[in-house]
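Field log, afternoon session.

UNIT: design team B
ACTIVITY: writing a sequence onto a fixed backbone
BACKBONE:
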């Protein structure tokens, strides 16, 4: 079996790691295509190095641009790649512009497409990620859902027959890395002179929180007034927008810091007093590490984290302050994101369904 994985943005490299490992273990011919959506070394190269992923076989070097030009450049470059490799499956990940471009290119070339992390919904049609995931699900031949909730969303949209529940591959990689980093003091805390539990860890990068100057100023202002140091791992988008709007990302309790490699991020989250984020992945990682999370959005795709009490949604500055300083949630043994073996299930499903889809 030959699989072409298409990735381009940071969270996709994390999901690629366990898939690549499971593919190698099963003797699958696994071709990795990097679109180049994320090109900063700290958003890209360090993930391949730290998570033991082979260097991409193909790099499209697409870079930044408007949604249309970025997605279009990928789409036009991928036709030739798929034509050359003619895989049994194109595997697309999550909800970025790289995901929709690869799904669209493959489906038009009659190459079977599988969508990893299918069925997530925020029901917020203003989010680029929501367009990407809905359109990708409806274009794909096989929908690899991470949770029961995602399976339910796909059934509601008439996609039950193409759906299979595999669990969440981010659980696979998180558990492995958590065991590797153990209880060692995080490099970040040593560098900044922070005590365990003496700081909060923050990431803010979504268009909804960064593009409007008043919105970004309100979020930054609330983080700067928190009762402990807040380390903001600043994505290039927030750095660029803050500079353009004249907003300082280091003020009051807030300290801006470069993004971290994955193992260092996990170590830093594990010994923090809480996480404040608008990232999808980090909400779930915080839950799996049982670190309280406050999500700076008005909705989430990972509703289980909220229902189980480990995540709260906070839209206004007051809600952010209240969310971060709330009491520690009650312990839970629930495991809505699977058992850490999702990637081998993905490879088994792709292999089992190969003849059914055909070319
Ligand atoms: C993308 C995904 C988002 C994901 C996030 C993780 C889409 C629509 N969004 O958002 O779902 O959560 O990645 O990080 O695909 N930039 C750099 N260097 C880089 C990459 C980006 O400077 O290596 C800057 C550019 O100015 C660019 C901006 O960040 O215009 C936004 O990058 P883009 O890839 O469009 O989206 P993200 O905000 O990273």
């Amino acid at each position: 079996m030959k699989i072409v994985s298409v990735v381009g943005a940071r969270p996709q490299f994390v999901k690629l790691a366990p898939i690549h490992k499971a593919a190698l273990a099963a003797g699958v011919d696994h071709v990795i295509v990097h679109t180049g959506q994320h090109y900063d070394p700290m958003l890209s190269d360090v993930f391949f190095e730290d998570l033991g992923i082979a260097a991409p076989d193909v790099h499209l070097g697409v870079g930044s641009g408007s949604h249309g030009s970025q997605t279009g450049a990928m789409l036009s470059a991928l036709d030739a790649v798929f034509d050359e490799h003619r895989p049994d499956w194109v595997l697309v990940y999550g909800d970025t512009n790289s995901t929709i471009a690869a799904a669209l290119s493959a489906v038009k070339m009659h190459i079977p497409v599988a969508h990893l992390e299918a069925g997530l919904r925020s029901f917020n049609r203003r989010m680029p990620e929501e367009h990407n995931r809905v359109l990708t699900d409806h274009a794909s031949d096989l929908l690899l859902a991470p949770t029961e909730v995602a399976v339910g969303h796909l059934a509601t949209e008439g996609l039950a027959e193409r759906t299979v529940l595999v669990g969440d591959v981010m659980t696979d990689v998180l558990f492995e890395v958590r065991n590797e980093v153990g209880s060692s003091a995080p490099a970040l805390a040593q560098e900044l002179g922070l005590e365990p539990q003496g700081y909060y860890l923050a990431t803010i990068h979504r268009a909804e929180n960064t593009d409007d100057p008043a919105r970004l100023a309100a979020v930054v202002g609330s983080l700067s007034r928190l009762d402990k140091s807040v380390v903001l791992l600043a994505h290039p988008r927030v750095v660029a927008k803050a500079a353009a709007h004249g907003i300082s990302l280091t003020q009051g309790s807030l300290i801006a810091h470069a993004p971290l490699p994955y193992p260092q991020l996990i170590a830093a989250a594990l010994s923090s007093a809480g996480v404040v984020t608008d990232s999808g992945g980090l909400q779930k990682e915080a839950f799996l590490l049982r670190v309280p999370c406050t999500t700076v959005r008005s909705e989430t795709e990972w509703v289980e984290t909220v229902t189980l009490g480990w995540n709260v949604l906070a839209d206004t500055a007051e809600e952010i302050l209240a969310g971060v300083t709330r009491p520690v949630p009650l312990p839970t043994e629930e495991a809505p994101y699977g058992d850490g073996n999702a990637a081998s299930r993905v490879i088994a499903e792709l292999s089992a369904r190969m003849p059914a889809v055909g070319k």
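LOG NOTE: The chain has two domains: 2-168+338-357, 176-324.
NEXT ACTIVITY: expression trials, pending approval
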